[in-house]
Recover the amino acids of this structure.
């Protein structure tokens, strides 16, 4: 399992539009993707589950990937979260 840390830089947090972009990208990987925040862990491939984490600006996340493409998945998804600006 590979874990990468990411901080939400988007002013409005990870609201529906960027979260759906994240989920779409996560589904491209064969690895299991989970997001950990504030002691909770949810599937990174479920928009509904992601929304339960209250992903506001400045929040620190842990992107966890386990599977064949875990290294690239965790790295690219962490970069994606940090690339969102609005």
């Amino acid at each position: 399992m590979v874990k990468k840390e990411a901080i939400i830089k988007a002013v409005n947090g990870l609201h529906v539009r960027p979260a759906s972009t994240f989920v779409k990208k996560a589904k491209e990987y064969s690895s299991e993707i989970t997001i950990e925040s504030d002691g909770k862990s949810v599937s990174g491939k479920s928009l509904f589950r992601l929304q339960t984490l209250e992903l506001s600006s400045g929040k620190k996340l842990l992107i966890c990937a386990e599977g064949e493409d875990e290294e690239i998945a965790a790295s690219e998804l962490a970069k994606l979260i940090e690339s969102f600006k609005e």
Q: What stands out?
A: The longest strand covers residues 60-66. Residues 70-83 form the longest helix (14 residues). The mean pLDDT is 97.
